[in-house]
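Exercise 7. Given the encoded structure of a 340-residue chain, write a plausible sequence.
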């Protein structure tokens, strides 16, 4: 066996993991994860995951793997993707996020697979020196079996690794663009990032190479999202259309600002905003957003988040806000926002 490993370590530097090998590696890791966490059987949760996941897969740009989506029966708030297209969201995440937020999380995870981030970790120089890539490429004539995986420890290596900050940032950007192509409003990426940041409790997750990794969501990933989301083209589809409107528009806008920016609505600022807007006695402290007659509510919400809210987040640290809404004489709607 020693001579075989020495021979495999001498493989040319350009040797790469094929799609077939990638799928086999991911399948073995998937078996490990499913055995440890179990699979959630709720029809509603699985239906939501499949609907959102397959809509994203169709526009992912990767056709050499078949994406599979499953809900893990765990209350850890997380998601992960394995090489070869095995994508998981936990039961807690599915119950705790809206469809738009889940679309961002899944888009992020699919982007890891599309960019082959885990595989590239194995193909780097450190992994070559450890011999894992040589074993993966060379054993059994290029075919992976359970015995060779156990020998090489590839599954353990992959699950115990953590994506780099550059990989995570790339997955954020590409995943947000993917959800926009699939018909989901990319503004929900802002809400999802805030939700994920608030869910980290300081404990290491069962699998490190997952959405939240082993560290809190870095603030710069949230800040960076405000630089690319406003530039994304977006057209709502039947799949990614906005959720059923069950609350008044001002209440929905207030909730969206609070979730995406992490600010708290302030009663006195709310009252002041209403007084100012009603009398059109506006000042330089606030921002006026005009929504033309006929503009859909979801478009107004997106412009508010990706323009006014994003700009103020980048300018400084605020913690409170006030918001008022009124209709104009020509059917337009006016939104007045102040932050402190």
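Solution.
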């Amino acid at each position: 066996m020693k001579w075989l490993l020495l021979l495999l370590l001498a493989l040319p530097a350009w040797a790469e993991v094929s799609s077939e090998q990638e799928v086999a590696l991911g399948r073995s890791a998937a078996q490990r994860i499913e055995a440890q966490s179990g699979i959630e059987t709720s029809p509603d949760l699985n239906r939501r995951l499949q609907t959102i996941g397959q809509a994203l897969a169709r526009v992912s740009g990767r056709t050499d793997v078949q994406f599979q989506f499953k809900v893990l029966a765990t209350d850890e708030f997380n998601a992960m993707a394995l090489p070869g297209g095995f994508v998981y969201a936990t039961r807690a995440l599915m119950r705790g996020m809206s469809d738009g937020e889940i679309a961002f999380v899944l888009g992020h995870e699919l982007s890891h697979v599309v960019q082959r981030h885990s595989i590239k970790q194995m193909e780097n120089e450190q992994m070559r020196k450890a011999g894992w890539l040589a074993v993966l490429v060379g054993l059994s004539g290029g075919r992976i079996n359970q015995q060779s995986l156990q020998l090489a420890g590839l599954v353990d290596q992959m699950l115990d690794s953590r994506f780099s900050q550059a990989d995570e940032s790339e997955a954020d950007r590409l995943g947000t663009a993917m959800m926009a192509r699939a018909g989901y409003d990319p503004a929900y990426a802002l809400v999802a990032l805030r939700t994920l940041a608030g869910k980290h409790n300081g404990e290491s997750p069962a699998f490190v190479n997952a959405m939240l990794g082993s560290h809190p969501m870095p603030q710069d990933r949230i800040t960076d999202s405000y630089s690319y989301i406003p530039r994304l083209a977006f057209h709502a589809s039947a799949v990614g259309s906005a959720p059923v409107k069950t609350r008044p528009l001002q209440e929905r806008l207030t909730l969206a600002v609070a979730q995406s920016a992490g600010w708290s609505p302030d009663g006195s600022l709310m009252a002041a905003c209403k007084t100012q807007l009603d009398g059109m006695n506006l000042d330089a402290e606030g921002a006026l957003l005009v929504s033309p007659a006929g503009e859909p509510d979801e478009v107004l919400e997106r412009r508010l988040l990706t323009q006014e809210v994003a700009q103020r987040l980048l300018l400084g640290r605020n913690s409170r806000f006030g918001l008022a809404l009124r209709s104009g004489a020509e059917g337009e709607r006016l939104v007045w926002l102040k932050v402190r």
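Remark. The chain is about 55% helix and 10% strand. Students should compare their own answers with the one above.
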